[in-house]
Design a protein that fits this description.
The protein is about 40% helix and about 20% strand. The chain is an alpha/beta fold. A hairpin with a 2-residue loop joins strand 12 and strand 13.
Length: about 400
Amino acid sequence: MVSGNTDKIIFRKMRCNLISTALNVLNITKNGKIFLINSRNLSGAPEISTRVEQTLRSLPADSGGKSKPERSLHIAVIGVPNVGKSTFINHIVNHKVCPTSTKVHTTRQSNTAICTHGQTQLVFYDTPGLVTQREIRKHHLEQSFKSAYRHAIQHADVIAVIHDASNGWTRKELHPTVLDTLKAYANLPSFLVLNKIDALKSKRVLLDLIKTLTNNSLTGKGSGKDAERNTPATVAEETRLNKRNTTWSHFSDVFLVSAITGSGLHELQDYLVGQALLRKWKFPPDVYTDSNPEALIVESVRARLLDYLPQEIPYHLKCQLEYYNVEKNVVYTSVQVECPTSRIERLICGESNGKLRQITERVTSDLVEMFGQAVSLTIATFSKGKKSASLNQK
């Protein structure tokens, strides 16, 4: 018994000495991460540094016996077509969950992307580009285009307006559909995201743009009187006084980002985490989207058809899932593309199915990135009820 107690005392002394040594060379942050302050102190004894780190990691966190409360924030991302909403969400979530292309109207229905950091969960609602009835007819869009964004906003805590800062023709004013949406939901806080700033070389242009689009008035940084003005009744009154207004005076903040390069997204993410509300998460921490794999596959095929086909042709195509199965960590799937005419079908396939092969390879690459596993994809085209070309890609 004495020997056992002696062993315990020796172990405790060793443990205290080890921790004491660690505190001289390490700085422990609140979230448990360990950073070396002076690596020279440990360079001659790497085995000691390993033991120090292992010991400190095994110590219980000082949380007072209570787990940290969960927080979440739901963000509706709106904007006109092709301003980079889906690319913005994919980059900030760090996972490809929203199909993208170079053409407008790639997103045809609301998508949900989830990003969980520590105890905070950010939920982004990617909405179709805000359109007019004329654009719906021109691009053969579903009437749900005009209601999808409303559904997203009704479930959101804040509205993020994505605006293309690189377009010299439209960057100095907000689109009427965007303004109408902000006025209709003036009770929700909103912030402006100027995207594609990598295409601009002049900081003066960005500063002038911020002043113009916000009327040089950010409610989040102004006085209490400015905050009180951000009410539906006040906004309606301003609308009557200035029917041709192309700016919004009630943005709480403005962020300059590049969704392609990721510039500015870290600061925006920190801002959103700081705005999160105390409440239970809606999704598990390892989930990135609530869309099912079948829908993501079809949308990925349609997005690449937009990239590879000219003008309005891809908007006339109908994509539908033919087969989906997962075996031994490999996704096996097939998508059918219905073409209105045999001429368009030949255009999609190309000479010796060369173009269809390119499309299949690109979609396969997208799906591998999206699912994180091997994908075997077949894209088949047909017209007038007759099946024609079919190409498989692994």
